[in-house]
Amino acid sequence: MNVLRSLLALVTSFLALITAFLCPTPQDTGTARLTQEKTLTFLDAFVCGQGLDSDGEYYYTSGSITAAKLTGLAKLDAATLAVVAQNWYALPQDMIDAGYDHIGDIAYYDGVIYAPSEGEADDVPMILLYDADDLSYTGERYELHDDSLTDGVPWCACDEQYLYVSRFSDADVVCVFDRNTGAFVRDITLSEPVDRIQAGDVYDGVLYLNCDPKDGNKTVYRVDLTTGGVTLVFDRNTTGYDTETEGMCVLPGGSGPVFHIADYNKLVSVFIRVYEPK
Questions:
Q1: Buried/exposed code over 214-230 (b: 16+ C-beta within 10 A; e: otherwise)
Q2: Structure confidence by residue, pLDDT tens digits, 198-218
Q3: Secondary structure element (H or E) that encloses residue 2, with its range
């Protein structure tokens, strides 16, 4: 066992060196300042490459190895990234048998993790509920019925009353469901379509969306939940190797909201980067 641990540590260190070479630190832009970067490599990264949320003390993450039919959740110490709990087989077997193979960007609220799950294009999008303490599946799930969800649900966000989701591509509405029952409440029509949405989070009554444009800098938008007004908050220059942005959570900072964003380098590492808008 000690030999195996030493070998894994050696492999992790080697992969971290490759990551550092291929993925230089992102550059500040005219709209955002990078204040911190943390790296998860190898096995830890596999369950952190999709979703991210936090209660201020812990990060909650999701990830998958589709070829091995592994879809996992993790709970990490937010300061040290030490693993507190992991669930490598988070999807219930009946959903795997039905073709679901993916958990997207998750949401945390009051001890519960809300996990959007999808598979084939014609599957009914689901929100699965997990105990945030040990990451076990509670047995509860919500079917999301809304005509605008034409390509699954890559993300969800929540507040005291509601769950918010949208489709991934050219979303022109944000769909609102009851957080306690999963019942449909309403659609919020957006002032302009938002494309390639990977994650969302609600902070101080505002919805923020993390997007992964095909070209150019990564972007974060704010959505007014009353009017549907869309505003660009900041953009990010991730530089270097082709990086895909994934989960995001928004936490209080000294002068306003601070954005914790997970970027996956499509190799073996996930970066959690902390930004302050300028």
A1: eeebbbbbbbebeebeb
A2: 999 999 999 999 999 998 999
A3: helix 2-22
